[in-house]
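Ticket #4471: structure output looks truncated?

Reporter: J.K.
Steps to reproduce: submitted the chain below (193 residues) through the standard prediction queue, then opened the result file.
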Amino acid sequence: MEYQSTPALADDQLIQYYLTSDSDALETLVYLNKDKIYNSILAMVHDKHVADDILQDVFIRIINTLMSGKYVEEGKFLPWAMRIAHNMCIDHFRKAKMTPVLNSTADFTEIIKYSEPDSSHQIMSHESHDQLRRLIDMLPEEQREVIVLRHYADLSFKEIAEIMKCNINTALGRMRYALNNLRRIMEEKQVAI
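Returned output as attached by the reporter:
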């Protein structure tokens, strides 16, 4: 049976269909979630080939977990999958003995979109691409990661907290510090808004 990508068909329903031997359900589940997962991976590893490999490994791990019966359904498939992706990126950096850094060639004006009409929105929306990339690259890893997960993967702070294995107040605090640090760096570098 082929499934349409509708919000009415939840991830948990697709998982149940897949577990009852319906491979089309898995294909739909992958289709609905792969872009957010891939974009988050790409923002961390900044290499398309590595991101492709990690994405494939993420879905292999998801399938293995589903088939082994170890997945606990709580209506949180995407945050769970994002946590797997995050951990696999960290594993990649450990193996390569690298520090995760956002890709300086990524178009961050497309990545970061604020809905609040405050000064942080003005900072993000008025910076040139090159200036914005340099500013974000100057942030500590955890602050960069919160920005990517919130505005690139479009996750809630609750989901970010689960992925980063911290409480929601810590995730909110990291975003606040990231925005404050961006403002401070802009003032120090005399970057025009």
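Triage note (M.O.): checked the attachment and the full token line is present. Residues 104-127 have pLDDT under 50 and may be disordered.
Status: closed, working as intended.
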